[in-house]
Amino acid sequence: MDLTTQHLRCFLAVVDELSFTRAAERLHLSPSTVSEQIASLERRLGVTLFVRTSRSVACTNAATALSPLARRAVESMDEVVAWAAGPETGAAVRIGMLASSTLLRAVVEAARATKPGVDWKLRQLPFTSPDQHLLRGELDCAFVAGLRPATPRDGIATYDLWTERLVLAVREDHPLTRRPRAMMSDLAGITLICGPNGPRNPQWFATIEALVPGQPRVLADATNLEEAVEMAATGLGGTVVAESAIEMFPRPGIAFVPLADAPLATMRLHTRAQDPSRALAHLVATALERHPTSASRVGPRRP
């Protein structure tokens, strides 16, 4: 029987809150992730743990019996993690990101809480391939959104974490903002704001351009995501971003239109393969524990 501490943490949060929504907020997870974890736990145990209606959640006798056992198991695991964390004076982890999000921050905060002696450094990345920064030793890891399946690359390990829908960022008076959603074909009539020509992130921009019919107009002037959103707000065109940008860029003049037929963006954690850092391994383990249902690993390509 394969149970994880994440199963038990989700279970205990629902027991305490008697609400899947409040349990998700407490754990900094989505309600669907909590529901998936509870359903997985129930399948593994072969029992029903909660009686759910549209208005309430109640514990079954099995949940009442499991609760003290689960608490002891989680407390014991926390003690193991605290022991493993230990003092790591001088250790540092340099984390690259195109933009932050609630889920990204929750991963870093959870790692920081159990490794307080590590110097966690967050750096915003430009629209260039993050793997270049990793291979040059400028970063230890990077959170990267991609639109295609991850492909092996020499010296790089990639971990799938969570998915997000895509939205179009445009000026608030753009005609597309009058619709509840847009299609990728609608982007043929606007200028797409992308990164500069040269060593940009082909995983993202090349896929977007390929999904727009014909030859879309491209303004390749933005050096990072914040610049791209600001350019969209001034009416220079539109830029396609993950939906977490709605939360990260709440500024006057910008609107976000859902793209109904766009592929999902997958947030991944990239690291150098065979990196010996305990602190980095802890960050990877924390990310995978918080997002276990979608996590997968693509190792480095072998010559």
Regions with pLDDT < 50 over 5+ consecutive residues? 299-303
Q: Please outline the major beta sheet.
A: 6 strands, mixed
Q: Strand arrangement, largest sheet? A: 4-3-5-12-6-13
Estimate percent helicity: 25-40%
- The helix-and-strand class reads alpha/beta
Q: CATH class of the largest domain, please?
A: Alpha Beta
Shape-level CATH architecture of the largest domain: 3-Layer(aba) Sandwich
**Using only CA atoms, what is the Rg?**
21 Å
Tell me what portion of residues adopts beta-strand conformation. Answer: 15-25%
The CATH fourth-level homologous superfamily of the largest domain: Periplasmic binding protein-like II
Shape: globular
Secondary-structure element series: HHHEEHEHEHEEEEHEHEHEEHE
Q: How many individual helices?
A: 10
The count of domains is 3
Mean pLDDT: 87
How far do the termini sit from each other? 38 Å
- Strand elements, count: 13
CATH topology of the largest domain: D-Maltodextrin-Binding Protein, domain 2
